Automatic annotation (TrEMBL):
Residues 62-174 form the 3-dehydroquinate synthase N-terminal domain. Pfam families: DHQ_synthase, DHQS_C. This is 3-dehydroquinate synthase. Its cofactor is NAD(+); Co(2+). Its EC number is 4.2.3.4. Residues 176-319 form the 3-dehydroquinate synthase C-terminal domain. CDD domains: DHQS. The keyword ATP-binding does not apply. It comes from the Bacteria. Keywords: Cobalt, Lyase, Metal-binding, NAD, Nucleotide-binding, Zinc. GO terms for molecular function: 3-dehydroquinate synthase activity. The gene is aroB.
Length: 355
């Protein structure tokens, strides 16, 4: 697959990625390599990754506990202390080998350690490949509130090795698929149409879809790195999706949802709101609802749960002057930014989703 050029870095694929790594990981450029992993990637991905590295630089492994609940400042403190104890300096480099939690947190750690050291993201999940590792957003959660603390700074590079996808189960693959569906809905109807029938999807098809998804996100981010305009479109489904995800994190008795599973619900809900506000036609809404529902299992929400999810919306990062800002759809492939809606419309969207 062809390398994708971003504003200040490139996304390399498969063998090209390892060739790039071995070209730059030289003792004259870096003093020490720190590889950040979690318990899963340490077991299933790290051995294969190390087998591809050819460098004389000392390598240290820092392992995190897996799970969104560990994407917080407390974990950052542990990593900062580890970097210090292992004599990391300004010429150290961090390689983040993992899913969204590892790349988000590891990148944030790199941006803040010694006022910033180089880092490279090597995403090992589909979600990480098409979303979390791309675009320079780095950060952690504040309690149950998603990505409240962070910084925008692009990595030195991103390495996408699609062989890592063989380590994932179906739920993790679907989680990443949600972000790919989103890229079609907000930017490219022809890309969205490719997901209407996944029954004959093969490995080569998936690689092509991943490449296209990354290219779409990169195009949007390159126009608006700091999210003052068009980059907000990437938050479609995330205003309610993040609130749903936070609600599930706060209530251990409720079925936990992966990021993409929550975003899938958010996209259906926000598509319904788009329809009710006269932006999206009924046919397009039902196409979106049934396509996503065919892939993701429906989740039930009580009225009390919906009210608590609505209360969490005030903490969304897009909000301005105390108003909850939604990204809505005018049609498949076209968004309308900075929209507000009533709580009644949100309740109606949940009602329709659960039919």
């Amino acid at each position: 697959m062809q390398t994708i050029t971003a504003t200040n870095y490139s996304v390399y694929f498969n063998e090209n990625g390892y060739e790039y790594l071995n070209r730059i990981l030289k003792p004259e450029l870096y003093s020490k390599i720190f590889i950040i992993v979690d318990g899963n990637t340490a077991e299933y991905c790290l051995p294969n990754f190390l087998a591809h590295l050819a460098t004389n630089i000392e390598i240290e492994i820092i392992e995190l506990e897996a799970g969104e609940e560990n994407k917080n400042i407390e974990t950052c403190l542990q990593v900062w202390y580890s970097l210090t104890e292992l004599e990391g300096d300004r010429k150290s480099i961090i390689l983040n080998l993992g899913g969204g939690v590892v790349t988000d947190l590891g990148s944030f750690v790199a941006c803040t350690f010694k006022r910033g050291i180089d880092f490279i993201n090597i995403p090992t999940t589909l979600l990480g490949m098409v979303d979390a590792a791309i675009g320079g957003k780095n950060g952690v959660d504040l309690g149950i509130l998603k990505n409240q603390i962070g910084i925008i700074r692009e990595p030195k590079a991103v390495i996408v090795d699609t062989d890592f996808l063989q380590t994932l189960d179906g739920s993790q693959m679907r989680s990443g698929l949600a972000e790919m569906l989103k890229h079609g809905l907000i930017y490219d109807k022809s890309y969205w149409n490719k997901f209407k029938d996944l029954s004959n999807l093969n490995t080569n098809d998936l690689d092509t879809l991943i490449h296209e998804s990354i290219a779409i996100k990169n195009t949007i981010v390159s126009e608006d790195l700091t999210e003052n305009g068009i980059r907000k479109a990437l938050n479609f489904g995330h205003t309610l999706g993040h609130a749903i995800e936070s609600y599930c994190l706060e209530h251990p008795n409720v079925k936990s949802l992966l990021h993409g599973e929550a975003i899938a619900i958010g996209m259906i809900l926000e598509s319904h709101i788009s329809k009710e506000m006269g932006l999206l036609n009924n046919e397009a809404y039902h196409e979106i609802k049934y396509c996503i529902s065919d892939i993701f299992e429906k989740v039930s929400f009580t009225t009390e749960a919906i009210n608590q999810i609505i209360d969490l919306l005030i903490f969304d990062k897009k909000n301005e002057f105390g108003k909850v800002q939604f990204v809505l759809l005018e049609e498949i492939g076209k968004t309308k930014l900075n929209q507000t809606c009533s709580n009644e419309l949100i309740h109606n969207a949940f009602t329709d989703y659960q039919l």
